[in-house]
# Entry
Amino acid sequence: MLGPSARFAIRKPPKPLRDLQSSLRADLALASGIVRLLICLMADVFTPEKRSEVMSRIRGRDTKPELTVRSMLHRLGYRFTVNGPLNRTLPGKPDLVLPKYRTVIFVHGCFWHGHENCPAFRIPRSRTGWWDAKISGNRARDARNEKALLKMGWHVLTIWECALKTASAREWLQKHLPSLLGGS
# Structure
């Protein structure tokens, strides 16, 4: 019969297996160190070609906020064009044109158009210089387009993405949309 200590004896694996285990541990440590180093060195998880493909799939038309505004306007009885000739020829190619009211509507995403003091807008931490220039350029272009439209006699309404996020924000917008459009 075995004594109490014999039941809990720790047995070492044979020497070749121990050598293999320590070799695997060393290889694993080296590999994980290399992976961590590569992750630190890489600014992006995608190759430049894949990143370009991913970014090209970001839609500029028929976005959820734009569809929400279109639905709201339609429900209120307004008629507008989305792909009409005016939409394509006016400065900035407005998302919606209401010819009867001589009004254009831009539905801006808070990130891409740099909505100040909005929680949805923050400059990314990587390549901040590039992003700062990109967003600043978008803001400058938006201001130029708005100025040109005003000079042409159009009423310009910009609806930000964050104004459509919550139900209460959408209700407020729907209630005030007629006065914002210059209607009743």
In short: The longest helix spans residues 15-41. Residues 1-9 have pLDDT under 50 and may be disordered.
